[in-house]
Design brief:
This protein is an alpha/beta fold. Helix content is 45%, strand content 15%. The strands form three sheets. It has a five-stranded mixed beta sheet. The protein has a five-stranded antiparallel beta sheet with strand order 7-6-10-9-8. The protein is elongated, with a radius of gyration of 35 Å.
């Protein structure tokens, strides 16, 4: 294991007068201890023992490197590309050399221990425990969703322990998660790529953390809590080294970031992408929950903000759903959390489960779309789209509610999708197009009159009340409408076609309102 002068300074046992350290505390490149010789070329990986007068002569040549210097003169300035630890000239160089070699061996043995644990696929917690003699503070790893994967700390009285056994695989409390979501300091830590300090403002003690990334994806955070001894500069490079081993171990063990079986998300995403899925493989995956393909299901699509995605609390929301909605499994999708609910496993009705969901949504200031029930898991894609469309449409037309049931927006969904996917001219009967052209050329409103007449189920009395029009005037207009359009309003299919087109026109902002459209036009 390579060291640096910050680690050397903290772990050698000989007395130090002072130090002059300018290198990056994270970088470690020292591999051996050498003694200075004027004719010998200094290597970047050498920690060199040197006398003060020799170091002064090197200063003039702008030589960089790491040094243990025998002697100190505070009046002399050295270049900032040097790392120097000053000791008294009376110290025995051989004893210093042995002490330094012991320090290198100490960390070399730790590295060997870590690699042995890695080779034996030891639990992550054992890797963390091996670092306690060096870091000397409680260590834990959290998922991006703030679930504790493991913790370890020095044994002491229970009331003095920072963690308890119950904390393993548990999430931070909803109150702590909400506080973190709106904490600017926490938000800024998400993109950190080096060991970083989090202030004591929230928990009363500082935290040194490192974000573990696999293939540049943030998968976990290792945290060290400053509760037993003050942090040292050497803690950062040691934490980074430990994290590199943990990262390899997580990849090697294919460590799950949730409690779903291996391959579960893959096969669900295949269904959502309308790919063919082997039924026997699907049933095997579902069996871990004692589910069957033909059980009764429904989908919940919980909208997650870009904010939640950035600060990685999406998986926490999914876990809250799984914990409170019996018979459910939650997965992260692009803009939503998809919760699949098995009504057979839940032994509750859809309405009973939704009454629980509403409280979760209100507490988290969230909104959700709800699909109708279905009886074939392979049809999951269609019902997930129902849930997504329900929330997209409901959020526009009913902004003040939390939970949007698809059945309340099914007709609106058909109208909106037709409005988005087709030009209005292609949807209109020829007779209606003739009537619209007549209105345009003669400045009439026969199209509007026809629409109101149809919406009142061809009732003359209701139509004239709606239009504030005399009966004779309306009957004359109706006669002209029929002459121009040649539409057979006694035909139920013609009436339905016209009503649908008029609804589409409204959504296209051609007649009445100007609401935002939930589908791309």
């Amino acid at each position: 294991m390579k060291l640096n002068t910050y680690i050397i300074k903290d772990y050698v046992s000989f007395p130090i007068i002072t130090s002059f350290l300018n290198s990056n505390p994270i970088d470690c490149n020292l591999e051996r201890v050498t003694v200075y010789h004027q004719d010998k070329t200094q290597q970047s990986f050498d920690l060199t023992l040197i006398k003060l007068d020799e170091l002064i002569s090197l200063r003039n040549s702008e030589q960089d490197g790491a040094y243990i210097c025998f002697g100190y003169d505070k009046s002399i300035e050295f270049h900032k590309n040097m790392d120097i630890i000053f000791v008294t000239p009376e110290l025995n160089p051989l004893e210093i050399m042995e002490n330094l070699q012991d320090t290198f061996n100490l960390f070399s043995n730790w590295e060997k221990n870590l690699l042995e644990l890695l080779a034996n696929n030891a639990p992550l917690r054992e890797l963390g425990e091996s670092a306690l003699p060096f870091i000397n503070n409680p260590i834990a790893i959290y998922t991006p969703g703030l679930r504790n994967i493991f913790f370890c700390e020095r044994k002491k009285a229970r009331n003095l322990m920072l963690y308890s056994e119950e904390d393993t695989n548990k999430y931070l409390s909803p109150e702590e998660i909400d506080e973190l979501k709106f904490n600017p300091e926490f938000i800024s830590t998400i993109d950190a790529t080096e060991p970083t300090l989090f202030s004591a403002e929230m928990w009363g003690y500082r935290i040194l953390f490192y974000n573990i990334r696999i293939c540049d994806i943030y998968v976990a955070r290792i945290v060290v809590s400053e509760t037993e001894r003050p942090f040292k500069m050497s803690d950062s490079p040691l934490l980074k080294f430990l994290s590199s081993i943990l990262e390899v171990s997580m990849v090697k063990q294919d460590f799950p970031m949730n409690d779903h079986p291996k391959g579960f998300e893959t096969i669900i995403n295949q269904i959502l992408d309308k790919q063919s899925v082997d039924e026997s493989k699907l049933q095997k995956i579902l069996h871990y929950k004692n589910w069957n393909i033909t059980d009764r299901y429904f989908c919940i699509a919980v909208e997650v903000s870009r904010y939640d995605q950035v600060i990685h609390t999406v998986s926490t929301i999914g876990s809250i759903l799984e914990a409170n909605i019996p018979g459910s499994v939650a997965l992260e999708q692009k803009d939503y959390i998809l919760a699949i609910v098995n009504l057979n496993a839940a032994a509750k009705t859809r309405d009973e489960l939704l009454s629980v969901l509403v409280y979760i949504l209100r507490d988290g200031l969230l909104k959700a779309g709800i699909s109708e029930e279905f009886h074939n898991f392979k049809n999951l894609n269609e019902y997930y789209l129902q849930a997504c469309d329900a929330i997209r449409i409901g959020s526009i037309y009913d902004e003040t509610i939390w939970c949007y049931r698809y059945e309340q927006y099914a007709l609106k969904r058909l109208i909106l999708r037709a409005a988005a996917e087709s030009k209005i001219e292609a949807l209109c009967p020829q007779g209606l197009l003739r009537l619209m052209d007549y209105d345009k050329n003669h400045r009439r409103e026969y199209t509007k009159t026809l629409k109101i007449y149809l919406q009142n189920n061809l009732s003359v009395a209701k139509t004239i009340r709606h239009l504030y029009m005399q009966r004779a005037t309306f009957l004359y207009q109706l006669k002209r409408i029929l002459e121009i359009s040649k539409l057979d309003l006694d035909d139920p299919k013609v009436k339905l076609h016209l009503l649908i087109v008029f609804e589409i026109m409204e959504e296209r902002k051609l007649i009445l309102n100007a609401k935002e459209h939930p589908f791309k036009i």
